[in-house]
Amino acid sequence: ALSGRLQEIFKRLRGQGHLTEANVQEAAREIRKALLEADVHYKVAKEFVEDIARRAAGQEVLSSVTPGQQFVKVVYDAMVALLGPAVPSLARAVEGAGSPAVWMMVGLQGAGKTTTSAKMAKFAASQGQKPLLVGADVKRPAAIDQLKTLGKQIGIPVFAQESGDPAGVCRAALAQARTLGCDTVILDTAGRLHIDAPLMEELVRIAHDTKPQEILWVLDAMAGQDVVNAAKSFGERLALTGIVLTKLDGDARGGAALSVKAVLGKPIRLVGTGEKLDRFEPFNPERIASRILG
Amino acid sequence: GGAGRSLDTASIESLEETLLAADCGVRAAAEIAQKVAQAFRASGADPGDVRALLRQEILGRLAPPRELRFAPSGPTVALVVGVNGTGKTTTVAKLASRYSASGKKVIVAAADTFRAAAVEQLAIWCARVGVPCVRTQEGGDPAAVVFDAAQAAASRSVDLLLVDTAGRLHTYHHLMQELSKIVRVAGKAVPGAPHEVLLVLDANGGQNALAQAREFQKAVQVTGVALAKMDGTARGGICVAIQDELAIPVLFVGTGETAEDLAPFDPETYVDGLLG
Ligand SMILES: Nc1nc2c(ncn2[C@@H]2O[C@H](COP(=O)(O)OP(=O)(O)OP(=O)(O)O)[C@@H](O)[C@H]2O)c(=O)[nH]1
Ligand SMILES: Nc1nc2c(ncn2[C@@H]2O[C@H](COP(=O)(O)OP(=O)(O)OP(=O)(O)O)[C@@H](O)[C@H]2O)c(=O)[nH]1
Ligand SMILES: [Mg+2]
Ligand SMILES: [Mg+2]
Question: Which chain A residues have any C-beta within 8 angstroms of a chain B C-beta?
Answer without folding.
Answer: 33, 36-37, 39, 42, 108-112, 139-143, 145-146, 148-150, 153, 193-195, 220, 222-227, 229-230, 247, 249-253, 255-256, 275
